[in-house]
Amino acid sequence: MLVTLLSQSMTVICLFVFGAVLLVGSIGAFLLYIPFLPIAIVVVILLGMALTFLIGARVGGTQVLRLHLIKQRIRRLRLRRNAGSKDVTSPPALAPSLDE
Fold first, then answer.
1. Which of 4, 11, 70, 78 has its CA 20 to 30 A from that of 63?
2. What's residue 65's pLDDT?
């Protein structure tokens, strides 16, 4: 049983090594056929676009959350102000002063 497991694992290891060599060889052949600089430029541009999108999504998401929290605070303050003043019939500037 141990010999069977070892032979199966050895076969799997050999297949992985062969696949890795084949992948590296095909990438090397591709880079020999196509110049490296245009590929690097395209990759850098795509990475920059993806990074810009991710930063924008993160900042925009926090901005929406921040605006929502500010609206909730304003709503609470208005409710407190309205609950604190029981029967306000005139604005405070036009209300009769208590000194007189």
1. 78
2. 75
